[in-house]
Amino acid sequence: MITSDTAPQDDPFLAHRRLLFATAYRMTGTVTDAEDILQDTWLTWSKEDRSEVRHPKAYLVRTVTNLALNRLTSARATREEYVGPWLPEPLLTSPDIAEEAERADSVSTAMLVVLETLTPVERAVFVLREVFGYSHAEIGEVLDRPEATVRQIAHRARHHVRARRQRFDSDAAQREEITARFLRACAGGDLNAVMELLAPEVTAWSDGGGKVSAARRPLHGASNVARWLLGIRAKPQMTGTTAEPAVINGELGVLYLRGGAPMGALTFDIEDGLLRNLRFQINPDKLGGLRP
To answer: pTM to 2 decimals?
Structure first.
């Protein structure tokens, strides 16, 4: 755990800590890695001769970015052996954390899934450029690459993301109403009511990581997904589990709790008033970001 007696305004690391975590989380898609990266950055920063650091913010962002690149590179082999679908670690967010719509979208589960398809360097360039607005020259300094090369990488990454990132309905009131209806239908075990809320081409992913029971492959179609949802709800191990609306990764989703402890999270997309792309994160090792 990072601790310091220095006031935030006196220590650049503390002053920029929120930015550094946001960068690390969008780079890695995991709360655990982001926190570890911040810890390593703090250790590096605490040992640095700060009189030699002309631009502390740039130094810290560079350190976080390069540590994240190292994590992503080593994580690729691990994720190839992952049991079942791999989903990002969910993060409870609030308006002051999600900030403006663009920042909220960049931390959405759907976006993090798309970012997983980029190479580590493409992901770093995209995050720094498209999310935080760094210039190509500044990113070149962070990654120690020529500005022209960064421009090419940025163009390629942006095109890649746009080709894979679908745009869905984002009306907050509609999302709140549909989420409430979904929770009522599931709680009542009403198959028809659940199916009415699902798009015909709906897909559901479940990330248990081999730690808990979960579907090893994506489920497709309203009937299959609805029956699976109600079948899971009826299992004895779900006794005592409650579901409630929560803002997860910048969007209203569902938080599953037992005894006040997080048991899982559901994020989803909405299109034409129907749920699509249901993503269940139930791996107990990936729920740390759901604790207040």
So the answer is: 0.88
